[in-house]
Structure of Glutathione-dependent peroxiredoxin:
Amino acid sequence: MIKVGDTLPSATLQEYSEVEGEGCSIGPNPVDVAKATAGKTIALFALPGAFTPTCSAKHVPGYVQHFDDFKAAGVDEIWCVSVNDAFVMGAWARDQKTGAKVRMLADGSADFAKATGLTLDLTGRGMGLRSNRYSMLVKDGKVATLNVEAPGKFEVSDAGTLLAQARG
């Protein structure tokens, strides 16, 4: 499992952007993790799935709500990563009104989740291999803090915990 001090694994996530210019949808677009994190501070949180109850009611809204606080703490971008396809993440972004506050990034084949060692097997619940629920502060591609939830919990990966670490 990835730990504090490690470099994020080489991976490509996908991002669906709603519009470019005159209302033309674009995407999905590849996001090279190494290139996208270089020289930046990223508040990254991952979760089992888009439109799931805890993720939609608590996890994403907390990060959207605290966007300005994260910026004031020196965070360049907030990323939400989930094992879903880019179109689902785009629809969820609309539903959650993330706008330019949270980048909704798809890990469709769970490659990033597998590479970090932070997977969650929900096959028994009909969801297949997913990402565990966690948050991390990433500085220039390296893990500065890591908060991994116990199964079924939502106690340490919330926006408030990561924000306190960003202010550190």
Q: What stands out?
A: The beta strands are 12-20, 24-32, 41-47, 77-82, 102-106, 119-122, 128-131, 134-139, 142-148. The mean pLDDT is 92. The longest helix spans residues 53-65.
